[in-house]
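User: Some background: our group keeps a shared notebook of sequences we're curious about, and every so often someone picks one and asks for a predicted structure to add to the entry. Today it's my turn. The entry only has the sequence so far, pasted here. Could you supply the structure so I can complete it?
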Amino acid sequence: DGHDISRDYRAARSLIGLVPQELTIDAFESVWATVNYSRGLFGKPANHAFVEKVLRDLSLWDKKDAKAIT
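Assistant: Of course. Here's the predicted structure to add to the notebook entry:
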């Protein structure tokens, strides 16, 4: 979207999806809970409709209740 990553890194970063592999809050927590919690770590407010859309778009909706470890 034309953001200078040096001067306007926050705006650029907000447009990039990130799922840190090394972030292990609780491997036995559900995918749904982990994704929602991760949003907060990056300063994003809770938005269940958005998380549902993303999981559906990624064909992961059926895994939302699965443990993150699986």
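Suggested note for the entry: Residues 20-63 form one domain. The mean pLDDT is 83.
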